[in-house]
Amino acid sequence: MDMDTGTRSTDATEHHTDHHTEHDTEHDTGTAAAGDVEAALKGWRAALGEARVRTDGPTLAAWQRNTSEFAPRELVAVLRPAGVSDVRQIIEVARSTKVLLQPVSTGRNWGFGSALPPRGPAALVQLGDMDRILKVDGRLGYAVIEPGVTQGRLSDHLAALGGTLKINVTGSARETSLVGNVLDRGGGNLGARAADLLGLEVVLGNGEVVRTGLWHLDADTVHHYPPGLGPDLLGLFVQSGFGVVTKMALRLHPSRPLREVTVEVREPLLPDLVEELSAMCQDNLVTGYLRITDGADPNIRFFRASATPTWKAQLTLYGNAGMRAAAATEIEHRLSGLAESVQSFDTEHDDPAGCDEQERALLEARLQLADGVPSDRSLHNLAQTAGKAWTGAPGDLDHDRDLPGFLCLNVTLPFTGSHVVTCAELVRRTAEEMGVTCARLFGRIGPTALSGFFPFYFERTDPEAVARAHRFKDELLDRLEAAAIYPMRIDIDVAPAFLRRTDDGFWRSVSAIKRALDPQGVVASRYVPEPSPATTPESGEQE
Predict the structure, then answer these.
(1) 291 and 349 in one domain?
(2) Which of 103, 94, 146, 154 is nearest to 125 (CA)?
(3) What is the largest CA-CA distance in the chain?
(4) 361 FRET partner, CA 20 to 30 A, in 13, 159, 228, 347?
(5) CATH code for the domain in which residue 230 is found
(6) How many CB atoms lie within 10 A of CB 351?
(7) Domain for residue 526, yes or no?
(8) Distances in whole angstroms, Cα of residue 155 to Cα of each of 188, 390, 511
(9) What does the alpha-carbon distance between residue 252 and residue 383 come to, in Å, rounded to a whole number?
(10) Residues 249, 139 share a domain
(11) What CATH number is associated with residue 492?
């Protein structure tokens, strides 16, 4: 299950040990703790109506449950805006009452905190009712969507339009967010999803509505030039906490034939494989996605298990048939003497019927993602490990404690053999020492960058298993950081300590922007340092 899917619909996207509880207590003493909750509830009911403001115990408890067993944060309400005007009114009330807001789209930021805010008390702004696909431009290849649009819904919509365009999907569930995952720099089957970001409409924490690029000049503009005129604000709302994203323009990709090349090498040859793959990418032989995995995760397995420790790579090649064939021939030549096996499948010319049943199922699963079609395959596999059938309700992953718990780490590292080996060995050794089974996956997210994704599972009903899983996560993060391998995304528990530990001019500048765009600090974020209790949110000056 590529849990690399986020759930936030804001720039603050996304979004049990005593160690974590101490952090939670400390950060619950910020601006929101002084908020007037009763006044806020009264204001929100007047603005949205009773039906869109939920404060009953079962609703709040349901949104606190999470597959990772992070300690619950206090929720005071679940708000369900129907449009931009509702979001503006929610923020206006929050500003006047100083009650913290936690915006989410689907709330399925599995492994990083699900729908939980980094601190409480907070009101959850659930944007799932804002679920319109506003525009699909087939000529320029983009869609304009609202936060509640899931990857399954947009994929189905594109198929109904003729299937000439596809989205950059993750291997997670159909009902997971597009907007939230993009804003948290999630990775899809075609690479970094933030690279597909073309435009944003954001309601800032100060109440202002901002559209990035040329969008603010023309509501019907085509999203051909994301920077626009003047400073490029687009990246400002990725992994930040300056407002609530209410619309996104997202690049689509052409659906076209491809050739998949799969490679298997023995463990000692991993650095040589990585170096060769990097050179192939630099030479433009690999024109699509690239994934390297140890194949240890049974829930997200896309390759046949090996009897001996091996690493497997999946490459996708585009272009016409001749270009794909020539690239595959050159790849096979470069890997001769290095790889245990190199296999190739061309979607235009080859027939999967020639494979045995297991290999055909694995191939079809890989090609489905390459074609931009999300599925619940990983969730079915996860439920099967617990002896259950998947019900089709993605919320079960958070709510059903009979299913395994899930945590993960997501880091970024240079695309070199030495860095990959260092990282992979740190994960292996730490997992072995702490009695955890952790898979290792690496995917290309840029010309010289890889994403490292390390998922692991635990028994949710066993307190010691939960504590061990969280200790492992924290210990592995510390060891990776000591090796200068830093998070690409970060969970709600470790974020505050990480920001304090790395405090410098960068985070102080982020805080200054936060004070300008969200002066009351009403929008929650994992990626913005919390204000000092001695600092007034309005001015940032000492009292």
Answers:
(1) yes
(2) 103
(3) 74
(4) 159
(5) 3.30.465.10
(6) 8
(7) no
(8) 14, 21, 37
(9) 32
(10) yes
(11) 3.40.462.10
- On the 0-12 / 13-18 / 19+ scale of CB atoms within 10 A, 96 is middle
250 and 278 fall within a common domain: no
Q: 228 and 296 share a domain? A: no
pLDDT tens, the chain, 543 aa long: 433 333 333 333 333 333 333 333 333 333 344 489 999 999 999 999 999 999 999 999 999 999 999 999 999 999 999 999 999 999 999 999 999 999 999 999 999 999 999 999 999 999 999 999 999 999 999 999 999 999 999 999 999 999 999 999 998 899 999 999 999 999 998 989 999 999 999 999 999 999 999 999 987 878 999 999 999 999 999 999 999 999 999 999 999 999 999 999 999 999 999 999 999 999 999 999 999 999 888 788 788 877 788 999 999 999 999 999 999 999 999 999 999 999 999 999 998 888 888 888 888 989 999 999 999 988 998 999 889 888 877 778 999 999 999 999 999 999 999 999 999 999 999 999 999 999 999 999 999 999 999 999 999 999 999 999 999 999 999 999 999 999 999 999 999 999 999 999 999 999 999 999 999 999 999 999 986 544 444 433 332
Let me know if residue 539 belongs to a domain. no
The parent domain of residue 440 ranges over 405-458+462-497
Q: Are residues 352 and 266 in the same domain?
A: yes
| 531 neighbors 542 (Cβ within 8 angstroms) | no
As a residue count, the chain comes to 543
Reading the block at residue 470, the tokens are 């969280």
Please count the structural domains in the chain: 3
Q: Of 451, 440, 490, 492, which Cα lies nearest the Cα of 188?
A: 451
- Name residues whose C-beta falls within 8 Å of residue 407's C-beta, 6 or more positions apart in sequence: 68, 111, 455, 456, 457, 458, 469, 470, 473, 491
The tokens describing 225, both together, are 């030039």
